[in-house]
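Extended Data, panel c. Modelled sequence:
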Amino acid sequence: MPATRGFLLPLASLVASLAAAACGSTEHEPRKTAEAVEQSVAFQERVTTPATSKTMGGLVTLRLRNNGPSAITVRDVLPVSDPHLIVTYLGHTTCERGCAGAAPDTPPFRRLVAAGVDGLVPFSVPPEVAVSAQKQPPVSIVFRLSIGAGGEIALQRGCLKVQEVNLQTQQLGPILATFSGGFVAALEHVDPKPSGYQPCT
């Protein structure tokens, strides 16, 4: 499914407590073994967000982890998703001004995202060793997940997933950023789930 790109303009005010109200779930990436590729970018976590009957969409913030020894410059972000799922790249963020995490696509959370986004591309992903030492902040990317044609019926059967994200980098060319063990983000049906619903696994 081709991805679209958007950017939300910052608003004057922001309710800080919205971050704590974000719903959804996050599964953290296991630590890499010594045999892991030295220079690559992966996702630190997997995020799912609910699609309510009103919004039929959600917002996700995904933390990138650079396993290499030096910073990587990302020049383009191209998500790869299931059919019926529209993925809109909203920008990169250090979350220093707030992040939505996993949240419904509603005006309050759009404002939260807008206030926290630092830009589109290019952007730099610092090495994880610098992040772990608290010398540089971690970098996340933000997507809006929404339903395309036929998506409402598909969502009755199971969650719609972002399988991976193709990062076009200055130093290494294209990198396929993934989460260990499967998809990186998903839009799921809000509880109660329909009969026969396939969970996000």
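The chain has a mean pLDDT of 82. This feature is highlighted in the accompanying rendering.
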